[in-house]
Amino acid sequence: MAAAMSLRLVPLPSRATPRDQKYSFSLITCHSTTTTLSPPPVISLTKDLKPNSNPNPSSSCALHCPHFQSCSGCTHEYNLHQPPILDEAINFFKRMGVSNFTFDTCRLWGWRCRAKLAVRGSSEKPLVGLYEEGTHNIVDIPECQAHHPSINAAVELLKKGMAELNIEPYNEDQGTGDLRYVQMAVTTYDTSLPASERYRNGKVQVSLVWNSRSESSPSFGKLNALANYMWMNGGPKRKVHLIHSVWANFQTSTNNIIFGNRWRHLLGDRDFWEHVGGIDVSMVPSSFGQANTRAFDSLLSKLHKCVPYGASVVDLYAGAGVIGLSLAATRKCRSVKCVEVNKESKLSFEKTASRLPTSMDSNISWHHADTSKDPLSWIIGSDVVVVDPPRKGLDPSLISALHSLSSLKLKDKSPESARKEVTEKRPWILRERESSVQSNSSQRAQEESNSLPETLIYISCGWDSFKEDCKMLLSNKSWRLEKAHGFNFFPGTQSIEVLAVFKRGSGVNIKKKKSGKKKKT
Ligand SMILES: C[S@@+](CC[C@H](N)C(=O)[O-])C[C@H]1O[C@@H](n2cnc3c(N)ncnc32)[C@H](O)[C@@H]1O
């Protein structure tokens, strides 16, 4: 069984030097145990957050993973509460004018609720894991400490099924074999269990990426047999109900894109629900989902506090709209527009929206669109812009649009002129209706306003791109950085998740500019 953890706050050892005492990190020690997973703790390392000196590994939170170094998934073994990048983040934000940067850490093991794993090797001895750094060799990671334990258990079951049914893993060189990848996503939302037991009893939605074009290919029988094996041995009739559902994805391409375009639900519940940000969230396997469900939930709690009640919000790079919809529900937003390029996310958005409280009076819509095309048209009319781009960061056209806002306001003083210039270009008006979804509890027509956003909330999983984007946003003084928080989304890796809140204008100067302009007219 995978190690679980307990966390406890302990006083500093009496031998601690005055220098050590400055670091709030020193107050935390971790103990790896073999007990089952407890509910996820969230620990805020906020007070006196200072760059780390030279932490002593022996008193730190260690990974304890047998695959460390051979597997490329984790890059550091000790002090998991303090990713090495944290020092740099603290210093960066200080330079950008934010000295009260906070960092929330979360569970250190068993945090990954979503994993995409390559399947290679042979049917008798399948390897299911990640690539070894810089090679095309797969490292088998049966005891991965980052995975939710249900993922490791489901992988073990999969391997047994492959061996029994003689299922050949994919061979990259020859393009032969059946099973290429597997995606394992865990739901920890089983309301029949007490809340304290839900996390550790997570159930797995298994997606088998099959090396064929469709259900009509000759190997479909084998695929069905494997799905049935997993269901019979891990489904609801077993003492330990591990498998939530089984899906197939068909992919024959020789490039390294994991999923093909064709999906088929095979067994179990089609609907997959999780509860984050105060709402029930539906996730189809083809849509983006956050890997660290609990840490995402704590990020959403913090994010909610940054959005005024009744605000009009645009959620760019929205996926299935989890962020936008959770804001709609918790902040009673006047309107929420979600913009996403992956059309597969639409279904999840619709299902999630259908479970929102019926009493909500909010215009909610999801748009299948590329944020980089005419981004200004999405931004105008919103009070708050939320961006959660992929690791590569914001599209340059979006940065330019965000830059141009202050000059726009100065130019277009009359609402009529702004409306004339901007409204005609708005994609949610011009695009085909079927590419968007509107969920409107009051049947009120979509409000169109020409207000410009005062708040920009940037959620980032790519530290390097965030730094560049942040510098760009601040460069022409159209935005200022108000606050920033970090989250330990990926313990054991170099990555952190950042939530940064920008306010429009450079502060005092904006007033001077406004009054100067007034005098002229
Ligand atoms: C980091 S994910 C965030 C998803 C969502 N905010 C969530 O938390 O579930 C980034 C999302 O941006 C989408 N995306 C990437 N490029 C895009 C673009 N140019 N326009 C719109 N969406 C894009 C991806 O498909 C993905 O769903």
Automatic annotation (TrEMBL):
Signal peptide: none annotated. One of its GO terms (biological process) is methylation. InterPro entries: RNA_M5U_MTase (IPR053304), SAM-dependent_MTases_sf (IPR029063), U5_MeTrfase_fam (IPR010280). SUPFAM superfamilies: S-adenosyl-L-methionine-dependent methyltransferases. S-adenosyl-L-methionine binds at Q290, Y317, E340, D388. GO terms for molecular function: methyltransferase activity. Keywords: Methyltransferase, S-adenosyl-L-methionine, Transferase. The active site is at C461. Belongs to the class I-like SAM-binding methyltransferase superfamily. RNA M5U methyltransferase family. This is RNA methyltransferase. The lineage of its organism: Eukaryota, Viridiplantae, Streptophyta, Embryophyta, Tracheophyta.
